[in-house]
Amino acid sequence: MNSAGIHHKGHQVFFLIMFIFVLAGIFYFSPDKFIPFMNASWSSFSQFLLILPAIILLTGIFSVVVTSDMVRKNFGSETGFLGSIKALLFGSLMSTGPFYMSFPIARSLLDKGAKLSSVMIFVSAWNGIAIVAELVEFHYMGPVFMSIRLILISICILGIGFIANGFFQHNGKK
Amino acid sequence: MYTNIDSMNTILFPLIINFIVFAVWFVIFLKDKKKGIQAIKIGIKNILEMTPFLLIIVGLIGIFSIYVSPAMLETYLGGNSGIGGFLFVSLLSSVMQIPGIMAVPIASTLYHSDVPVSITAVFLSASTMSSVFTLPLEIKYLGKKFAYIRIGLTYVLCIVVSLLTGYFVHLIGGGV
Questions:
Q1: Is there a contact between B150 and A159 if contact means CB atoms under 8 Å apart?
Q2: Closest Cα partner for A114 from A93, A83, A159?
Q3: Where are the domains of chain B?
């Protein structure tokens, strides 16, 4: 999983240590910047802490309730619009682990005979409208921005699925 | 300076969200104690895995706010920057892959300064959905064709969606 880059835990710790050294350097040469830096960082971080309990519980709840078995059973059974909606929902709800988990899961769905457009919708929904991220977005950006973007992006993801299906039907499989 | 969210919303929204999620969890816990405890364990493990990255993002937001003034943002990305600022942000964010949870605090910094909403939206959409960084991984599992088509379509549709998001948010007048 080398190409996972910065998302790998060991790499993350390494980058964090490097980053702290850079910060230390900046504040050694301009100590007056330290207070504004802490203010800005804290105001962002405290926002995050406020919804941290919900984030922890929600990621946990969905990884316990929505199992990969459940997703597998529900893929391929429907091929129409309902199937696409299901793919969208499952992508969003399943998206509790790191993003690169979506690729192997999508692969196994394809191997089990799921429709290509559904799989592409699944991957895009996993990354684009993850349920927990939508919660954080609601909290930071407010209901108007969040709901408008959620609706438009959902339509866009369904569109990606349909257009992609056209591409693949023209030129045969994979 | 960047965060001027109403104090009402900053306290009330998280309280309501936490309460609803806790209620859902409690129902699951009552039905199946094992599942309830497992959910908490998985949730904490997921957060711990992201913590170093999260701290880096928080630090970057701090650095960003001391070196990039709202006036600078306004000049380079504001209303007068035209299509150039928008395209620059869209390209930059489609190269990066940032998990949604962490992209939102950065987007919030943009949203609460004078940057057009469409730029905030394109940053959020493109940085979470399309990524050149993860292209090798996507190709490995799903094939070249799948990956190229997905990322190409995502980029184009993200631009359309972001412009529409900007339009509708202005129409409804959505502050936080």
A1: no
A2: A83
A3: 70-171
CA B99 – CA A45 distance, rounded (Å): 16
pLDDT of chain A, 174 residues: tens digit per residue: 333 444 566 777 888 898 898 889 988 888 888 888 888 888 888 888 888 898 889 888 888 887 767 777 777 656 678 888 888 988 888 776 666 678 888 888 888 778 888 889 999 998 889 888 898 898 888 889 999 999 999 999 999 998 988 888 765 554
ipTM of the complex: 0.78
Six token digits for residue A38: 């802490």
Q: Which of A41, A55, A145 sits opposite B169 (nearest CB)?
A: A145
Q: Does A37 sit within 8 Å of B101, measured CB to CB?
A: no
Measured CA to CA in angstroms, residue B2 lies from B25, B80, B96 at distances of 34, 20, 23
DSSP designation for B3: -
- Return the ∠ at Cα B30 (arms to B24 and B35), rounded to 5°: 80
- Which residue among A1, A98, A163 sits closest to B153, beta carbon to beta carbon? A163
Contact B159, B90 (CB under 8 A): yes
Q: Name which of B42, B66, B125 is nearest A40 (Cβ-Cβ).
A: B66
| Nearest residue to A123 via CA among A162, A95, A165, A146 | A95
- The answer to whether A142 and A47 are in contact (CB under 8 A) is no
Give counts: helices (H), strands (E), chain B.
Answer: 8, 0
